[in-house]
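REQUEST FORM: STRUCTURE PREDICTION
Request ID: SP-0412
Submitted by: Lab K.M.
Chain count: 1
Length (residues): 65
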Amino acid sequence: MDDKEFLTVGYVASLLDVHDSSVYRWIRLGEGPRVLRTPGGRIRIARGDLDAWLEAQRGAPRHDG
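STATUS: Completed
RESULT:
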């Protein structure tokens, strides 16, 4: 895990092939990866936290709809 690499929501969305708003919604609902908020209010996601979240999703039940 690389906790020194911080990703933008847009970059994470492009990696997952989803819209930015999906990532923001997951974060708002507490269903997304752990985030860091900069002093300016921007959201960043550590690469290691994204990797851990993705691994946890492999066994998680799907929420269709």
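NOTES: Residues 11 and 17 are 10 Å apart (CA to CA).
Reviewed by: T.R.
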